[in-house]
Design goal:
single chain; alpha/beta; Rossmann fold; 9 strands; 29% helix
Length: 206
């Protein structure tokens, strides 16, 4: 299936894919007509496309910064007929601050974001105070964030950031290693084959 052309300098929406330029001078909110279920850091789309297929009444959004990965998600959705999935090729920060209407986000899933494992690079991690607060402003009351990682230091940072403004949905220590019916992703399968522990945590916007 042919991948759509886009304008690299402006926000472009075409055939279930939204392209965001690296720099957005002004917000360009999209008028969605229902609540959103968003996965950030979607990789090749295995998890989110299946969720869209399993929940056809919900509107799903896959946000992936890397073009080749976004292309794989789009092709997978087209091939399998996931018509309720919008693929966003661009940064999570731009999606939240410039594109999302307020408030329309029901659930957010952040699956295996780049852990930036070196201490001096931790400032580049997606889950930071500023990002979570901006995201909360776009969420409905009771909206939910689920964060999944194989990196224990990132988990610890995420727990600190999320509990500042949100309510934990899991008992102490506020994470699980084996949730039911969560679904599978490329990175989840890869890390499990290498016997790595996967951590899941969930918080609500109250």
């Amino acid at each position: 299936m042919e991948f759509p052309w886009w304008d690299k300098k402006n926000v472009s929406l075409f055939d279930q894919i939204l392209f965001l330029p690296p720099v957005l001078s002004n917000p360009v909110p999209i008028a969605f007509n229902q609540e959103l279920y968003i996965e950030f850091c979607s990789g090749n789309g295995l998890w989110v496309v299946q969720k869209a297929l399993d929940n056809p009444g919900n509107l799903w959004v896959a946000v992936e910064k890397k073009l080749e990965r976004a292309k794989k998600i789009w092709n997978r959705a087209k091939r399998l007929g996931a018509q309720n999935l919008l693929v966003v090729c661009g940064s999570a920060e731009n999606m939240v601050t410039a594109i999302l209407p307020s408030p329309l986000v029901k659930e957010v899933f952040i699956n295996f974001p780049d852990p930036w494992p070196k201490f001096r690079h931790a400032k580049h991690r997606l889950i930071q105070d500023s990002f979570v607060r901006a995201l909360q402003n776009k969420m409905v009351s009771g909206g939910k964030i689920t964060f999944v990682t194989d990196d224990i230091s990132y988990l610890e940072q995420g727990l600190v950031v999320l509990k500042k403004t949100m309510k934990p949905l899991l008992p102490e220590p506020f994470y699980s290693k084996d949730p039911e019916n969560y679904g599978s992703s490329f990175f989840e399968e890869m890390w499990r084959k290498k016997n790595k522990t996967i951590y899941y945590t969930a918080y609500a916007n109250y």
